[in-house]
Amino acid sequence: MASRSSSPSIQALWRLRAMALFLIGPAAGIVLVQCIFGLPKILWWSAGGMSLFMFTIFFTLFLKERTLIVNQTKDKQTKAN
After folding, report:
1. pLDDT by residue (tens digit) across 13-50?
2. For residues 55 and 19, is the Cβ–Cβ distance under 8 A?
3. Contact present, 14 and 69 (Cβ < 8 Å)
4. Which of 3, 22, 39, 60 sits a CA distance of 20 to 30 A from 31?
5. Per-position b or e across 25-35, b if 16+ CB within 10 A of its CB
6. Is 0.85 topped by the overall pTM?
């Protein structure tokens, strides 16, 4: 578990760890289908585009979560003083 002394980035990744599984699942599925059936190039490009889209969404959520952690830390420090 991410401790309070760890960086905001590590804390944000820890909070979003379950959502990160949604990035691994489709990639594993594509590799499995490729191994069993084979995929045409157009489906590889489609899968790559969708993977990029999903990573962009995850990265956006990560940045928002990190910003939230930083703001909460500042608020706690302000209230403590």
Report:
1. 999 999 888 888 888 888 898 899 988 989 888 988 99
2. no
3. no
4. 60
5. eeeeebeeeee
6. no
